[in-house]
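User: I'm preparing a small set of examples for a lab meeting where we compare how different chains pack in three dimensions. I only have the primary sequence for this one, and I'd like the structure in C-alpha cell form so I can line it up with the others. Please keep the answer compact; I'll paste it straight into my notes.
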Amino acid sequence: MKLVTAIIKPFKLDDAREALSEIGIQGMTVSEIKGFGRQKGHTELYRGAEYVVDFLPKIKLEVAVADDKLDNVIAAISKVASTGKIGDGKIFVTDLEQVIRIRTGETGDEAL
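Assistant: Understood. Below is the C-alpha cell output for the 112-residue chain.
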C-alpha cells in the first residue's frame, strides 16, 4: 500500500477529484496549505502599495492506494494538475505499513 500526496493548484482540485473517482478511488483527504518552491512567491499591488506574497495557496491531496492502482493514480493526478507553468506542484509517494478501518476493524487493502 502507498500514500500518494499531491501538492496542486487550488483550481485543479475538482478536476483531480473527478479523475480519481473515474479510476475507482473512493476516498481522499484534502487540506488547504501554503508554500512555495522554485516559484518563490510573487508581488501584488493592494491600494497602491506593492507587497510580496512569499507563500502561495496550494491544495494538499492525500490518497491511500493499493500497489496495483498506484500508477493509475499518479497518471490521473499528473494529467489533470498540469498547466505547463511553474508552480504546478509535486507528487510524493510513501509506503504505508498498516491501514486499519476503525469502524469495522478491517486491515490492509480491505481497509482502503
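A couple of notes for your slides: The CA atoms of residues 102 and 111 lie 9 Å apart. The chain has a mean pLDDT of 90.

User: Perfect, thanks.
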